[in-house]
Specification:
Number of helices: 22
Helix content: 55-70%
Oligomer: single chain
Radius of gyration: 38 Å
Largest sheet: none
Distance between the termini: 126 Å
Order of helices and strands: HHHHHHHHHHHHHHHHHHHHHH
Structural class: mainly alpha
Shape: flat
Strand content: under 5%
Length: 452
Amino acid sequence: MSDGDEPANDDAGDGTKEADGTEPAKVDEEPADEAADEAEESDDQPAVTDPATFENRLDEAETVVEDAETEGDLDDADELLDEIDADLEEAVLPEPEPPEDEDEEPEDPKAEFEDRISDLRSQIEDQRGPYLDDITDEIESAESTITTSEWAKEGKPEVAEAVSSFFSTANDALGESFERTETEPEAVAEELAAARETIAETGLDPDDDAETIATLLAAAETLTSDLEDATLWSDLEIREQLRRQGFYDVLEPEVTKDFPPEMSAIKVYETEGEAEPLLSALEKFDSDFMEENLLSALEHFAPEEAYEPVHALAQRRNKQPIRILGRIGDERACDTIEDFLGGGDVELEKISLRALGMIGSEGSTDAVAQRLLADNKEIQSSAARTLGMIGDTRAIEPLGDVLDEEAADEVRASAAWALNQIGTEDALETAAAYADDRSYLVQKEAEKATGV
């Protein structure tokens, strides 16, 4: 290089020139740093999954469950649900809109999918089986019934006959030669146990032998039912107690030979309105069948002396005793019956509301009025009518609100009916204001309030 030539490059502090002498473009390093930070933040935040992905996968799983024909198919469906469940747990779904009411819990975006998975698992379980173990478990339960029960003289041959009938069906289904040779229950149970062990060794497959398994299970269940119907010593003791108390004295001698004679006696006491013999039988019989028939008889004339035993039964949420309490009309039952309001059982709540209306205690007005706000229109309608039966004037305003709101027509009609039942000037004026209502049902009830 000659002394007069310019240096090819400037000092480091002056930058670098291109060959043509122009300044090179400067690189802005700051945006690159920001991009790196953004990339790092993106790595920390998993991508949001489209809910449609899980909807489609669950639709496919539902088809698999519905089409499953074998236990293996059901196992495959279960594994598919496991995969979806695991992916759902890891997934990030879009956040739902926040609730308008600050006191409400925000929605879980995964809840709907979790419910579908749970429902599909239940369908899988419902489609499984029956299995060989179901048969042997049922037989083993029958053996226990035979050996632990105290059979009456009449019951022993009934037990033997029930086992013989089971053996007959099992022989046809399996090509076996089971035979009952004993008559005493303990010995019969041993023969049944031996048959159970043989059946357990058959290794029946739930897919290949489904029809045979179903036949044997039905026969085992019939055996259980027959043993339940066989006569126990305790059954005879109860009848003997009732006989000594004169329970059967109302029957003609030839009627007492009928089985069961209690039914004939119950009808007589019901017709004559005699509560004491019915209550005595209700206390003694440990039988759902007899309890139902005794309560039906008591319901027809609802004696006051039946309050205590019927109230005890009503506390189990039994519908028939609740109806009887309503007919008895004892206000002591109100607290118990009010506890059944809002529990989710529509039929139970309707019966309870009706019973409260029949009792007619104004102390129940507030509890009943709250059910005007129920989500179910049948309950709303029943609550309105109950308020009319109670007749408390404090119900006029909430009943008027029902008429004024966009409720179902049958609910509004019930509110108008209730106001007519209350019957005060204020109640009738409130109802009469809807004599030209758009609904014929409401009009019909409101016109009654006008006196026209």
